[in-house]
Write a structure and sequence with these properties.
Helices cover 69% and strands 0% of the residues. By secondary structure, the chain is an all-alpha fold. The chain folds into two domains: 5-95, Rna Polymerase Sigma Factor, Chain: A (Orthogonal Bundle), CATH 1.10.1740; 115-182, Winged helix-like DNA-binding domain superfamily/Winged helix DNA-binding domain (Arc Repressor Mutant, subunit A, Orthogonal Bundle). It is elongated.
């Protein structure tokens, strides 16, 4: 009686599953590993990646041959399905293809010109001084509104102040800040 290659493969897989037959595994490995590897490379995988994935597939054959059911598919179909699923898993895990290193977002910002940096530092210092001159209850409301990002209603709830009081204190604080920042102190440029 003549057997088909699929039947021979199923018989060898059964020997791997039941007896951990190394000789049977070597025959299957020698037959399927190059085919699975070539298939993965034809799907666009790099050579090294395809070889690694082929090793995983063949390892599944060694460790899980008992899960192969010749009534459902041939051993070739089973191994190719494992390779397909492992490839999909690898693609899902590999998010590097989504990032383009040439994307301008990865370019560092141009350094700020020195004169702008000095002006910015002076402006920041003036704002700090102006805020420091406000009454503490106004400073707290400004901090909650603009640094903590709370709405006026949330500030009223957190502080227990009426909503109208919160709004009027913030408005008053801004009025005072505006006046303090509009008066531009002269910078002494004499050496």
């Amino acid at each position: 009686m003549t057997t088909t290659p699929a039947q021979d493969h199923a018989r060898l897989a059964a020997r791997v599953a039941v007896d951990r037959d190394r000789a049977a595994f070597e025959i299957l490995f020698d037959h399927f590993a190059p085919r699975v590897n070539g298939h993965l490379q034809r799907l666009g995988m790099e050579r090294g990646q395809a070889e690694d994935l082929t090793q995983e597939v063949m390892s599944v054959l060694w460790h899980k041959a008992h899960l192969f059911d010749p009534a459902k598919s041939s051993l070739a179909t089973w191994l190719y399905r494992i390779a397909r699923n492992r490839r999909i898993d690898l693609l899902r895990r590999d998010k590097s293809h989504r990032l383009d290193p040439a994307d301008p977002i990865f370019e560092p910002d141009a350094p700020e010109p020195a004169d702008e940096a000095v002006d910015g530092a002076r402006r920041d210092e003036r704002v700090r001084l102006a805020i420091g001159a406000l009454p503490s209850e106004q400073v707290e409301l400004i901090r909650l509104a603009f640094f903590a990002g709370l709405s006026h209603s949330q500030i009223a709830e957190r502080t227990g102040l009426p909503l109208g009081t919160v709004k009027s204190r913030i408005r008053l604080a801004f009025s005072r800040l505006r006046k303090a920042l509009e008066t531009d102190p002269q910078v002494d440029t004499a050496d």
